[in-house]
Every structure is written in C-alpha cells, then in structure tokens.
C-alpha cells in the first residue's frame, strides 16, 4: 500500500469516469458528506453484499446528507452491468488506470488461499463537507456496512 492517509487529512481530489463515461470529481460534492468506498471487483460475493447493503439503506444515508461513490478498477461497462443487475442507486467510478486507488493508498499486496497478488484493499473513507477525511473504515463488514457508517458518523 502507498502512503497511508489519516483521519483529519485533506481528502485527495480525484477525477474519474462513472458508469456512463461522465467525469466525476470530489470537487462535485463540495459541501456534502461523501461515503467513498473502494472495493475489489464487481459481481463478486463480498462486493455484491457491500453494494446491496448500501443500496438497501440508501434512503437512510440520503436523509443524513451522504453521497455514496464506489470505486474499483473495473471498466465502465462492468459497472453498468453491476448497477443494472443489483439496481444500485449510486455512482461507481471506473479506475482502470489505478490513479484514484493509488491516491488513496488502497492498492497493494493481498493474499488469498496462499496466493499473493496486488489488488484493492476494501476501505471506506468518510469525507466531510470541507473535504477532510472524518473516518476511515478498514476492512468494512460487507453485510453491515451502512450500520458502521451511521454509527461513526452521527
């Protein structure tokens, strides 16, 4: 993993393409609370559970004034299929060149079933209205992620 960001740090200003090819930037959400969540791969069990938990509780997040943005290294087309299949109501950014994951330091060595490889470390950044990282959730509970967010950010 790259240099670790800490709570209280200014959130790196990112730019990326969403599922429709539209450029989205952190600056677009100035004055709003942003739930920026990084996940490894569309359509996988853990990532689907996490996205569906956020979807199922989306109204509660909106009522609190949160904007939800997911980021993975999948393509715009992959994101479109993921959103359509699971009726996800939020933006997913395609970070195929890994610029955003590197800015946030969530790309690095991982291990699964004895295999070592590089990938995204599932991490969520809660960014306040001023663009400051209020909380970082490392290894979020995919099935109860909204509850974790609401508990931290009242």
The CATH superfamily appears as Glutaredoxin
The largest β sheet comes out as: 7 strands, mixed
Low-pLDDT residue intervals, each spanning 5 or more residues = none
| Proportion in helices | 25-40%
Structural class: alpha+beta
CATH class type: Alpha Beta
Mean pLDDT equals 93
- Shape designation: globular
Portion in beta strands: 25-35%
What CATH calls the topology is Glutaredoxin
CATH architecture assignment? 3-Layer(aba) Sandwich
Number of domains: 1
Report on this model:
This protein has 154 residues and is α+β, with helices and mostly antiparallel strands. The chain has a single domain, classed as Glutaredoxin (3-Layer(aba) Sandwich). The protein has 5 helices and 9 strands. The protein has helices at 45-56, 58-63, 76-86, 99-103, 145-152; strands at residues 15-18, 23-25, 33-38, 66-72, 91-94, 107-112, 115-120, 123-127, 133-138. The strands form 2 sheets. A 7-stranded mixed β-sheet has the order 2-1-5-4-3-8-9. Strand 6 (107-112) and strand 7 form a beta hairpin.
In short:
Monomer. One of its GO terms (biological process) is cell redox homeostasis. The protein is an alpha+beta fold.
Give the topology, please.
Elements: E1 15-18, E2 23-25, E3 33-38, H1 45-56, H2 58-63, E4 66-72, H3 76-86, E5 91-94, H4 99-103, E6 107-112, E7 115-120, E8 123-127, E9 133-138, H5 145-152
What attributes does this structure have?
single chain, 154 residues, alpha+beta, Glutaredoxin, 7-stranded mixed sheet, two-stranded antiparallel ribbon, 9 strands, 27% helix, 31% strand, globular
